[in-house]
Amino acid sequence: QNMWIYMEAVFSGGDIVKQLPQEAKRFNQIDKAFIKMVHGAVETLNVVNVCYGNDTILTLLPHLTDQLELCQKSLTAFLDTKRAQFPRFYFVSDPTLLEI
Is residue 17 exposed (0-12), middle (13-18) or buried (19+ Cβ within 10 Å)? Predict the structure, then answer.
């Protein structure tokens, strides 16, 4: 969930979407699936049924995590190319560099 929140802020618009269109498309698919899953969980009142009674969630969550990790790797590679162009960026964290 934390990685999704971080990626949502990154891919919600701006220059990164233009720079990484494939990853933005991938994140949009992840976002839709995650939101659909959360809405389904909200409708079920019993948390045990949400976590263990739903095979879709058990299979979907690992897949979404893998896809988010791919987005994270691509984003890190993109930021590393920017750091290679401007060595001073090596001293700047990823979130700060995204703001620049």
Answer: middle
